[in-house]
Specification:
Largest sheet: 5 strands, antiparallel
Number of strands: 12
Strand order of the largest sheet: 4-5-8-6-7
Shape: globular
Distance between the termini: 56 Å
Order of helices and strands: EHEHEEEHHHHHHHEEEEEEEHHH
Structural class: alpha+beta
Length: about 325
């Protein structure tokens, strides 16, 4: 582990001042950054503890929720308003990790966690463009069962590991950011990047910028939502595929829908083509299947994950069928 200094921020302005250096990292629960430092993948010279920043979940004037970036995952999953109004989010968090990790992990840290690609972590013997730009991608021709089928590039086929982020993408969340240039917001779906030629950059955050909150909009039909994760074992494992979905059905017709996929791309994948195919159609298995096929038209499975399109299709049909049945 590279030697580093440590500082504790008292508020966002203090965090930005302390985090102004080129080799500074913000520390929340440490459930990912500490592992990366141990493996010498991340080499910050300064760690700025931001767990003292506001950790509140408050109602917004528009009827949504403002979630402080320092809120622990357990507190978010257990919050009454989250459980009743955004159940897909609570379920995604509970599916994501053990209670011990959820008790430590913060919302901001979860959003910024890095891929769990085996080749990314193998600093001794594997080429990885995300870890060492320009070195190559051994996952492309290696054991790539868990890797991307959507939005990948020749430079990187890694997937984003977060369950919580899949639900946030489906819920049209907004990210609140502060930096040297002031405060800004952006849609959650614009925060993470596809790999392109520069997979070493996971997000569009500028150096030193700090996520201060995640805002959920009012979405009444999200009370009828769910998150389903398919994994190799029922204990805590990363998703082969996952789906966050909310469905608004009246008299057998789909009025509105929100869908995002996990385990299939370098970022949480908002399924806009599937949503467009579903709106105004009947809530039937055939419609659900056609929507999945529309979203997966550009999928490019690898040698070991050719099962993913079919698995994702069947999972989407099951999730939407359950939500439609609940509506009926």
């Amino acid at each position: 582990m590279t030697p580093f200094s440590f500082a504790r921020a008292t508020d966002a302005a203090d965090a930005l001042r302390l985090g102004a250096g080129d080799a500074t990292a913000y520390l929340g629960g440490g459930t990912n950054i500490v592992d990366l430092m141990r493996e010498t993948i991340a080499k910050p010279t300064t760690l700025v503890d931001v767990t003292g920043l506001p950790a509140d979940i408050v109602e917004t004037d528009g009827g949504g929720l403002m979630i402080g970036a320092a809120v622990r995952n357990t507190a978010l999953a257990e919050h009454r308003a989250v459980r009743s109004r955004y159940p897909m989010l609570a379920r995604a968090i509970l599916a994501g990790a053990s209670p011990q990790i959820r008790n430590m992990a913060t919302v901001g840290g979860n959003v910024l966690q890095r891929t769990r690609c085996t080749y990314f972590y193998d600093t001794a013997g594997s080429r990885c463009n995300k870890r060492a730009p320009g070195s190559g991608c051994d996952a492309a021709e290696g054991f790539n069962r868990i890797h991307a089928i959507l939005g990948a590039s020749v430079a990187c086929v890694a997937t984003h590991p977060s369950d919580m982020c899949v639900a946030l993408a489906a819920l049209d969340a907004t990210v609140h950011i502060e930096g040297a240039g002031g405060a800004r917001t952006l849609p959650f779906t614009d925060l993470h990047r596809l790999p392109g030629d520069h997979p070493e950059f996971d997000t569009v955050l500028e150096a030193g910028e700090l996520i201060t909150a995640i805002e959920l909009p009012a979405l009444p039909f999200a009370t009828r939502s769910s998150y389903r994760k398919v994994r190799d074992r029922s204990s805590y494992a990363f998703a082969l595929v996952s789906i966050a979905a909310a469905l608004d059905v009246a008299d057998g017709e789909i009025r509105d829908v929100r869908i995002a996929f996990g385990g299939v791309a370098h970022k949480p994948w908002r399924a806009l083509k599937a949503e467009a195919a579903l709106r105004g159609g009947p809530a039937t298995e055939a419609t659900f299947r056609d929507a999945a096929l529309a979203e997966l038209a550009d999928a490019k499975p690898l040698r070991d994950n050719a099962f993913k399109p079919d698995l994702l299709t069947r999972t989407l049909i099951a999730v939407l069928g359950d939500l439609a049945g609940a509506a009926a």
